[in-house]
From TrEMBL:
This is Phage tail assembly chaperone. InterPro entries: Phage_TAC_6. It comes from Aurantiacibacter aquimixticola. It holds the Pfam family Phage_TAC_6. The lineage of its organism: Bacteria, Pseudomonadati, Pseudomonadota, Alphaproteobacteria, Sphingomonadales. It comes from the Bacteria.
Length: 66
């Protein structure tokens, strides 16, 4: 399983570098959902998203880095 994961990750990282111009650390910092959204921008959005007020409430609740 490890060799299969490593080979797949290497292929995806190489593809992200060639197609998107990403350095390796951008690939490793991206989530699978982010990579899929970039590679398939025409896909249907999932859910209604959030409005600015909800985003502001979430940011106020987050004390990460304070």
């Amino acid at each position: 399983m490890e060799a299969t994961f490593a080979a797949g990750a290497r292929r995806l990282a190489g593809g992200a570098g060639r197609l998107l111009g990403w350095p390796p650390h951008w690939f490793w910092q991206a989530t699978p959902a982010e990579l899929a959204a970039i590679l398939d921008p025409e896909s249907e959005p999932r859910g209604d998203g959030i409005d600015r007020a909800a985003l502001q409430r979430m940011m106020e609740m987050d004390d990460n880095g304070r």
